[in-house]
Sequence to fold (758 residues):
Amino acid sequence: MIFDLDMIKGVYSRYKSRVEKARNIVGKPLTYAEKVLYAHLFAEDATENFKRGESYVDFAPDRVAMQDATAQMALLQFMQAGKKKVAVPSTVHADHLIQARVGADKDLQEALNKNNEVYNFLASVTNKYGIGFWKPGAGIIHQVILENYAFPGGMMIGTDSHTVNAGGLGMIAIGVGGADAVDVMAGMAWELKFPKLIGVKLSGKLSGWTSPKDIILELAGLLTVKGGTGCIIEYFGEGAESLSCTGKGTICNMGAEVGATTSIFAYDESMNRYLRGTNRTEIAELADEIKNELRADKEIYEDPAKYFDQIIELDLNKLEPHLNGPFSPDIATPISKIKEVAEKNGWPLKVEVGLIGSCTNSSYEDISRAASIAKQAADKGILPKAEYTITPGSELVRYTVERDGYLDVFNKIGGKVFANACGPCIGQWAREGSEKQEKNTIVHSFNRNFAKRADGNPNTYAFVSSPELVTALAIAGDLAFDPRKDKLKNEKGEEVMLDEPQGFELPPKGFDVEDPGYVAPAKDGSNINVVVSPTSERLQLLESFPAWDGKNITGARLLIKAYGKCTTDHISMAGPWLRFRGHLDNISNNTLIGAVNAFNMETNKVKNEINGEYMPVPDSARKYKAAGIPTIIVGDNNYGEGSSREHAAMQPRHLGVRAVLVKSFARIHETNLKKQGMLAITFSNPDDYNKILEDDTFNFLDLDQFAPSKTLTIELIHANGNKENIFVNHTYNQAQIDWFKAGSALNLIKQKEAVPKN
Fold:
């Protein structure tokens, strides 16, 4: 089945002419990313040459995708917008709420029992508003998107930071907050600052133990977690052409870990093969008709440094298998150096668990290559030293790999197959013994490895690698094991080596599945009721945030001054808190409980100036709110790094926070704050972070003159009575200032919808 074929035909029918007009306006050759962007302008044809990193541009994405944890809040907001049906094709994927504990069948049934209220809500709200629903067990959103919806030259947004995975099929796919999704589903423009462009030229070809995962692991080490902020990474070169489509998807997926807006590969034969292999031959044929425009102009490839803002070259012939971590996905170490680095830093070398799968690495190719290593262990009599788990990315992949015998292979080495869901990758892992908080090492093929992310244990050292290397390390039980040269002892005491992994880009016998898990919406949902119980602990209808009164914010108090890395996991934890993603007040009880207080270096312990006592962050915020005292959050660099969850913006807003003042923001989080009517500001002088004291009072002196590019002034009143002014910057344009004035972007949508139409 091909979804939304008429929409795709429409995109292709106007794509070439829009690109040609853009080329004339810009007056130079275009990169592939630029072509897709200019082909999706909300105003249709290009009329100006947008400045990278400066121009705010309105786009018209082709579709919207949401996962169940973020979809709840997004759809609760959409229900307020007054629309009868979504304006663009949209889907919801139930993949985040399934906890990995025992195994696929039991875990899925447990999730159905526990989350029945949420699943019923999602099933009914999608049915009412014309949204496709992928039920629990159908698979992880990004794998399902790649298999069913992604297409070269298209543009989509999704309420998950790893939406960027679809770049592997030549699509501009960007992670956003739910409020952005509401805009697009309501038929409005979606705004984005026109990205800068990083060109990554890949030469050579992968071989042996290296994999597509190693390309992005190496790149993460070069760029760091914020090196791609505000940029699209565009891959090209002979090395890019040699990669499989799903391998490209893996690389794009982890572009989120360097802060990139998205990543993209040009259309090529591997994408054509994948489209045909997933029963979308007609799309492949349509793409072939305009294939010259589904890649950069030839001048770009001849002299890339002239057209990209930054060029990085990687020789795949020289690339080594990598392990990235612990605690950050940009700490990159080649396998040949891991023992030396681990011993120097005191990392535990014993591998306790190896986990493969996730939205990053759960393709047929990934599973087949990992299975080739597992089969060797079984055939050569090697007993695995660590636990081993497998998380298939979709029912299509799971059914096919089971048919082809790979799950039996994993079973022979004691592998445990979890449900087709996110599971351990997002903290949905009931790992036995994690509550003891013992120091230990795990290896996985996921994308993120922040402290406590997988199992809640701050002392779990998690390392990111390819599925095949994870499998080898789990068999060896040793982080320093280099399968290219190290030997293992089998049951007979014989020394044996593992051969290089082998796999298949696509299943030789084709994909197969009995029930992919898709539920189509009603053609007319006008008579369908979406019921949310007023006593529910899981779901809560939203109330509008208050509009700004037009006055300066005065008498504000410090809620917390966060020290160091403060990701969305620190601001709004996942794991057990996922069950409250549809209930704003309940989930607000986890607000910033993971952030480190700069004044005592403790988590979830801040001073409340009303009574002078130290208390949990949410409790302090509620106390200030009840007293009518506005609050401010202060943070460090790249504040809000991580997932797209808008709860990290909505929760502080709900608890009375008025402004977030930091050294720098992660892109998605900054946008989410703006959308929710929050003031997102940065220090003009980053050293002023040090001037903020625990008991300061904050007065904005010129917020009543809020305007684009205008620096704002904050008066700090210290407890000793001394006063000093600091200056802060912002990136609000006039439209975003209107969101702030209205109280939120959604408030503005409702206001416009309420205006009678002629």
User: Anything to note?
Assistant: The chain has a mean pLDDT of 96. Residues 5-26 form the longest helix (22 residues).
